[in-house]
Amino acid sequence: MVTLSALADLLRKRNAIDERISQIIQRPMTAGHAGEWIASRIFDIELELSAVMAAYDGRFRSGPLAGKTVNVKWYLKREGLLDMHSSPSLDYYLVMTGPRAAAISSKAGTRPWRIDSVYLFNSHELLEEQQRRGVKIGIATSVREAQWSAAEIYPKATCQALILTPEQATLLRLFG
After folding, report:
1. ∠7-37-73 over CA atoms, to 5°?
2. Which structural domain range is residue 59 located in?
3. Number of domains in the chain
4. Model confidence over 32-71: pLDDT tens digits?
5. CA atoms in the 13 A half-sphere facing the CB of 72
């Protein structure tokens, strides 16, 4: 019973923290909502008013991708999977991830709330490549390691479609 009591106490504390975060992001505290809010601030993305837009979460307001649509993902671990859409209205996936991990059992594991890496995928090119390989598009679509590497914009700037400013890199390090 001590363990159950300790868990109940920790969940009360977590609920209080989640409530404070919800007040900041103006949506319920989930990785999806928090990730969209963080990305909107760091990457100057104007989020859609509705959080249930089918293919994308918003549009880049400035920089080389200004006006392009973006689907923001925050995965607490990078397991090589990406929830994909086949909508032609989606231009980019901006994926923030925690530490790399294999997509195996989560027993006795943790999913830390942090950002270790950021990736930018051109959705049209990724979709075409996935379809060419015969990969099923949808929830938990398998993305090859080479595709992840080519899309990295933080901490390594492999993808040249969006070069981070020093300020953006500093802001991302806050979540590392």
Report:
1. 80
2. 30-173
3. 1
4. 999 999 999 999 999 998 767 779 999 999 999 999 999 9
5. 26
Please give the structure tokens belonging to residue 146. Answer: 């080479």
pLDDT above 70 for 105: no
pTM of the predicted model, to two decimals?
0.93
Contact 99, 117 (CB under 8 A): no
The answer to whether residue 1 is domain-embedded is: no
Assigned domain for 121 exists: yes
Encode the chain in three state secondary structure.
CHHHHHHHHHHHHHHHHHHHHHHHHCCCCCHHHHHHHHHHHHCCEEECCCCCCCCCCEEECCHHHCCCEEEEEEECCECCEECCCCCCCCCEEEEEECCECCCCCCCCCCCCCCCCEEEEEEHHHHHHHHHHCCCCCCCCEECCHHHHHHHEEECCCCCCCCCCCHHHHHHHHCCC
